[in-house]
TrEMBL record:
The protein's name: PAS domain S-box-containing protein/diguanylate cyclase (GGDEF) domain-containing protein
Coiled coil: none
Domain EAL: 23-277
BP terms from Gene Ontology: regulation of DNA-templated transcription
Length: 279
């Protein structure tokens, strides 16, 4: 029996141990990463299709890991959400993005709106409004230059809470956006009750937009609906000129994607803010 037990140990436990250990290590490193200032914020430009100018950017977090190198959000955000560490990480991103935007304005660059992502865990924090207000006043940033993005799936988790929270943010003068739109089955009734400035069409609908009839039908319906509700549209994941032309022809307002630029460091982003930049 002892022998058998040992075999079983060999067969199953080392692997499980490995995984559990890896996770625990990662969680500890995630905790330390904040103190060690290993996180940084990248910016991805948003282009206005009417003027051909960059009118904003989305802030996207990165982790410069001491051993593993440059990590993208998919490699640590899920664990950060499970452990609640997304809250302090999210606070860091909010402050970094607001301070950066204030710097750009103090340097005399064109006023732009920076969007910051809020995951469901962050959105449900009781003191969120207080935190955001505090950040804006401390930094001295005009609230109109901050946009908060919440995903459609977190917006529908508790519709009454979403309506209440977004209305409070709107009173402050912050821009509000629903991210990954089209993937979360929200109702027209709910959309109509939310004080939204923007909807971001999920990139899965943009990928085949120039050829796939279903994607075209969905995107056309989203654009018509939003414009009727007075909401602007951003298409994300735009990678080709043909996609851009299609979207412009169909009255989409803004695009974001590798065609314009991948997410980049703040210093690199500044070139998009020069007066002579034009696509
Ligand atoms: P998201 O909010 O939907 O962000 C857009 C993602 O699409 C980004 O991935 C961006 O790099 C990527 N992307 C941009 N243009 C293109 C394109 O043309 N083609 C394709 N295929 N992809 C494109 P990223 O930076 O890896 O972020 C992934 C997700 O991680 C984000 O999805 C967001 O949900 C989450 N995330 C990133 N930063 C933060 C943050 O500061 N806070 C929170 N709560 N979540 C974040
Ligand atoms: Ca987003
Ligand atoms: Ca998105
Ligand atoms: Ca997405």
């Amino acid at each position: 029996a002892k022998q058998e037990g040992r075999n079983q140990y060999r067969l199953y436990t080392p692997k499980m141990n490995d995984k559990a250990l890896q996770r625990l290590t990662m969680e500890n490193e995630l905790r330390k990463a904040l103190e060690r200032e290993e996180f940084l914020v990248y910016y991805q430009p948003k282009l206005d299709l009417c003027s051909g100018k960059v009118i904003g950017a989305e802030a996207l977090v990165r982790w410069q890991h001491p051993r593993l190198g440059f990590l993208s959000p998919s490699e640590f955000i899920p664990l950060a959400e499970e452990t609640g560490l997304i809250k302090p990480i999210g606070d860091f991103v909010l402050w970094a993005a607001c301070k950066q935007n204030k710097d750009w304005q103090d340097k005399g660059l064109k006023g732009i709106c920076i969007s910051v992502n809020l995951s469901a865990v962050q959105f449900q924090q009781k003191n969120l409004l207080q935190k955001v207000t505090h950040c804006l006043t401390e930094v001295g940033l005009n609230p109109a230059y901050l946009e908060l993005e919440i995903t459609e799936s977190s917006a529908i988790q508790n519709p009454q809470m979403t309506i209440k929270t977004l209305k409070e943010f709107k009173k402050l003068g912050i821009q509000l956006s629903i991210d990954d739109f089209g993937t979360g089955y929200s109702s027209l009734g709910l959309l109509n009750q939310l004080p939204l400035d923007t909807l971001k069409i999920d990139k899965s609908f943009i990928r085949d937009i120039t050829s796939d009839k279903d994607s075209q039908a969905i995107v056309s319906a989203i654009i018509a609906m939003s414009h009727n509700l007075g909401i602007k549209l951003v298409a994300e994941g735009v990678e080709t000129k043909d996609q851009m032309f299609y979207l412009k022809e169909h009255h989409c307002d803004q695009i974001q994607g590798y065609l314009i630029s991948p997410p980049i460091a703040a210093e690199q982003f500044e070139k998009f803010l020069q007066p002579d930049y034009h696509i």
